[in-house]
Design brief:
The protein is mainly alpha-helical. The protein has ten helices and two strands. It has a two-stranded antiparallel ribbon with strand order 1-2. α1 packs across α3. The two termini are 25 Å apart.
C-alpha cells in the first residue's frame, strides 16, 4: 500500500505485503504491552501505518508548507518508530498514535533547526522514499487545507518578527518556491525552509483554528 509517497523498499529488502515501513530482514518482536492489548508485530505496525500515515502527512504539511518535506518527514517518522518499536509500552491504538506523534514532533523540531528532513532511520532500514508523482503534491495540499491556511496566515503576519514575516510572505502569500525565497532573502535554501517553519510554529494557534474548522 502506498500512501502519499510512503517509503519504497530498496532492492535488497522485501517488506511485508501490507506495509511499506517494515523490513523483512528484521522480524518485528512484540513490544511488551499487557496481554490482550495492541502489539507492534507485523499486523500491529501495518495497522498503525494505515491509520496514521495520512494524518502525519497533514501534520507535517501544515508546519512546513512543503508537500515533499511532509512526505520525507512522514517516512522518517515511521522508520524511526520501527527502529524504536521495542520501547513502546502502551496497549491501545490511542497510545500508539500518541507515541508515534511524539516521534513526529521530534522529527519536526530537527527539521526546523536544520531546514531539511533527516533520513538516517530510513538508511538504516535500507529504505528509500519514492518521489511524489503528479497529483500527489496537490492531494497533500488539499488534505492539509493549505489554501485555507494561506488566507488565515496572511491575516496574522503582523504577529511575526520581520525576518519570519518576510519569509512567510514570500513562501505562503506569494507562493514562491523555496529556491526563490532563499534568493530573495539572501540565505541558503535550508535556512529559508527553517525560517518558514519557525514562522508557522509561531502562528500555531492560527493553524489550529484552521484545522479545527476543517474537521
Amino acid at each position: 500500500m502506498r500512501v502519499l509517497g510512503g517509503p519504497r523498499w530498496a532492492s535488497q529488502d522485501r517488506p511485508p505485503r501490507n506495509c511499506k515501513v517494515m523490513s523483512s530482514a528484521t522480524p518485528i518482536e512484540p513490544s511488551g504491552p499487557a496481554r490482550g492489548g495492541l502489539v507492534l508485530d507485523d499486523a500491529g505496525f501495518s495497522g498503525l501505518y494505515r491509520d496514521a500515515a495520512q494524518d502525519l502527512v497533514v501534520f507535517f504539511a501544515r508546519r512546513t508548507y512543503d508537500a515533499e518535506a511532509a512526505a520525507d518527514l512522514m517516512a522518517e517518522t515511521f522508520a524511526k518508530a520501527y527502529l524504536g518499536r521495542r520501547r513502546f509500552r502502551g496497549s491501545t491504538e490511542e497510545a500508539a498514535r500518541a507515541w508515534l506523534f511524539g516521534i513526529a514532533r521530534r522529527r519536526l523540531a530537527m527539521y526546523v533547526r536544520r531546514g531539511k528532513a533527516e533520513r538516517r532511520a530510513l538508511r538504516r532500514l535500507g529504505l528509500e522514499r519514492p518521489q511524489l508523482v503528479e497529483g500527489e503534491y496537490g492531494r497533500i495540499e488539499e488534505l492539509a487545507g493549505l489554501d485555507a491556511m494561506r488566507g488565515t496566515l496572511a491575516e496574522h503576519l503582523s504577529r511575526l518578527a520581520p525576518a519570519q514575516r518576510r519569509a512567510l510572505e514570500l513562501r505562503v502569500v506569494r507562493e514562491l518556491p523555496y529556491p526563490d525565497v532563499a534568493d530573495r532573502l539572501g540565505i541558503s535554501e535550508q535556512a529559508a525552509r527553517a525560517r518558514v517553519s519557525r514562522a508557522l510554529r509561531a502562528l500555531g494557534s492560527a493553524l489550529d483554528g484552521v484545522a479545527a474548522a476543517q474537521r
